[in-house]
Amino acid sequence: MEYTTVRSFFMRFNKDKLFKICVDNKLAGELKKSSYTKDYLSRLLVEHALSGKFSLRKLEILDLLHYHSSTNKKWNVYELQGKGKGKDKQFVLNDPEEFEELMDKELKSYLNCKVCVLAENNMLLARISVWNENPNLLLSTTSIYMIHIPGSSHVLLSTVKAAYKTYFYKALENLFGCENLKEIDLTGKKVGPLCDLVLNKSSQGSFSHFRLNQVDENPLSRKRKRDSGEDSDIENNPKTFNEEWKKDQKIKTQTLKTFGSNPQPSLEKIEFKMSTRFKAGEYVPELADSEETVNCFVRFKGTNVLEGIQKLCEHGLASQPLPSHMRNIHSLSRNYFILTDKKRPKEN
């Protein structure tokens, strides 16, 4: 390993991560993190690596964990369709060492690569370094990262270069024993919410209460805990009353029915592409009979878009009930939608 290569590798980590690596390898001594600079920590780790105390495997694992824990890397979700031909492989696909050996064998039939697999939090994390002529296993810009939950029919992949897509997808189809690897319209930067959306597709929103065992243990009991909401003091005060109590209760009930009372999966963006006829002819009469299609693209973006939509509903800023493409986002396992007009029945 060359000095410049290893140096560039460690400089990709932030100071906190570098300090943690030093602590884990007993290189930081007893000084506090504030006593070190990022430059000093990286040089310390480079010297440690060049002295042979860091193997290439160790560096690959550090890179794999760094990519997996990062919150600014994009993940694409794929579905393993027609899965079943490889049922005899299931015991292999649960073991990281066997999984790595099998993946390495399948991929090397198509690509020059090196595979590193690690088991973490009941998931299999994989790093695949791909090269054409001169391999650079640490700083490869063509490295592919993958996450698979054993037993599930989905995988998460980082961006795959177009030149490798056909071969890489074919190798994965052989690996998992499926007929087709289909990319679904679900992307994001946080692994947890993406896994939650695809694994618990039928138990989101108000149905999450059953998955999380938040149901009434004794529904026949007459005793009920009083709801201590934020406005409980006002509601119990005989001198005050809410003029829009019925409206507020209706909004609260509809919002609870749509989203449930549990936190929503964290999606950073939701996109809608609409292709529809112009429907505001009463405001623009000259376009009332126009058959021309109106194209529109709408993007909701934020730290948690679903929570944002829920808050709009709770405060009465969004009309309810929401349209189905907004109401069922958390149960559709996707965050990109194409909306078109419904086809009219043909007149006889």
Automatic annotation (TrEMBL):
Domain of life assignment: Eukaryota
Biological-process GO terms, alphabetical: CENP-A containing chromatin assembly; chromosome segregation
Subcellular location: Chromosome, Centromere; Nucleus
InterPro entries the record matches: CENP-NAC/CAD_complex (IPR052011), Chl4/mis15/CENP-N (IPR007902)
Major location category of this protein: nucleus
One Gene Ontology cellular component annotation held by this UniProt entry: chromosome, centromeric region
UniProt keyword Cell inner membrane, yes or no: no
Pfam short name (any one): CENP-N
Keyword vocabulary terms for this entry: Centromere, Chromosome, Nucleus
Family: Belongs to the CENP-N/CHL4 family.
Name of the protein in question: Centromere N-like
Lineage of the organism: Eukaryota, Metazoa, Cnidaria, Anthozoa, Octocorallia
